[in-house]
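Hi U.,

Before I forget, here's the chain from the pilot set. I'm dumping it here mostly so it's searchable later in email.
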Amino acid sequence: MIGLAPASDDAELVARYHGRAPRYTSYPTAPHFTARVGPEIYASWFEALPADAALSIYLHVPFCDRLCLYCGCNTSVVRLESSHRAYASALMREIDHVAGLIGRRAKVVHVHWGGGTPTSLPGDCLVAIMDRLKERFAFWLSASTITPCRPTAWPSRPPRAG
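Structure:
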């Protein structure tokens, strides 16, 4: 933790973290999204990363195949596979662009997919994006990948182990 001593009891934890907090963090964080941030500033953030920096990568898929009743995300329904594939291609171009700005195979310790529903992308696209990340970045052996998915997309009966 950053400068925080462990809490001694539950009441202290509640007191410490009581209050409003974002549901999740966007990258860069919301206060950095201003009209002043152009290509030069964007590039400078990546160029300034320390050589030994371990990165967490966030991949955003801004759509779903259908809306979940409980969802509070700002998303839209997109069912056209051509749109999903076009977005996956754009995401891979952005991966190449960012890796180029960093200028080396930076270490990655965490990948988090978010959105919408990342698993609305075709499976081969998800694999291709992860493969591209592994080509352009140096993944630690213990790197984690988190991919939220729509719970109703799981089969009612899990497949049998062979």
